[in-house]
Amino acid sequence: MFYLSSGRVIYGGSTSEVKAAAASVSSPIAANPELDQLARCLGTDQVSMISPSGSAANPATVGIGDRITSATDVTFTFCVPAGSAAAAQSLASAWAQRVATLKSRRTGEPWSAELTDPAGTVLGGSADVVQLTAKPKAGASSSNLIIEALQTDDLAPLLAPS
């Protein structure tokens, strides 16, 4: 089910989800500092979304996107509000190690089998946003990889602030 207007697109699994989301959006994204910072973090990514991630007991909002500069140059972007400057720095510093050592719950393989060239940058702001980037390994799927991982809660351990 979709809701489409001149200022937004809302997608949900059912009519009630879409109606609830449409009714709750009464102000622009910039009025919510965390969402505004996540959107700015994603920048000009061609495919992007801001969505809840994590478990029901520990929900978080993250932004994910693909920056595509050519058919062979894709960069995945993960934007995470870390909650504090210290947690942001810790997450940015640990990103490469997490990609190298943590395993996908879906595939059982290390994330390094799918991702390469991880880099973390603290963007800061009131939400202490961290921009994490990585490139898909040769032969890895593009947008579907990170969107599927987000939808199946596979990214939560990889992106969780310390």
What does this molecule look like?
With 162 residues, the chain is of the alpha+beta class. It folds into two domains: 1-28, no CATH class; 32-159, 2-Layer Sandwich (Gyrase A, domain 2). The chain has helices at 15-24, 33-42, 85-101, 143-151, 156-159, and strands at residues 2-4, 9-11, 47-53, 60-70, 73-81, 115-124, 129-136. A five-stranded antiparallel sheet has the order 3-4-5-7-6, with helices on both faces. A hairpin with a 4-residue loop joins β6 (115-124) and β7. The protein is globular and about 40 Å long. The termini are far apart. The model is unreliable at 1-6 (pLDDT under 50).
CATH architecture of the largest domain: 2-Layer Sandwich
Q: Describe the strand arrangement of the main beta sheet, using strand numbers.
A: 3-4-5-7-6
The averaged pLDDT comes out at 79
CATH class (first level) name of the largest domain: Alpha Beta
Q: Uncertain spans, ≥5 residues at pLDDT below 50?
A: 1-6
Q: State the distance separating the first and last CA atoms.
A: 36 Å
Report the C-alpha radius of gyration, rounded.
Answer: 16 Å
Q: Which band does the percent of strand residues land in? A: 25-35%
The biggest beta sheet reads:
5 strands, antiparallel
What CATH calls the topology of the largest domain is Gyrase A, domain 2
The number of strands is 7
Relative helix content: 25-40%
The computed structural class is: alpha+beta
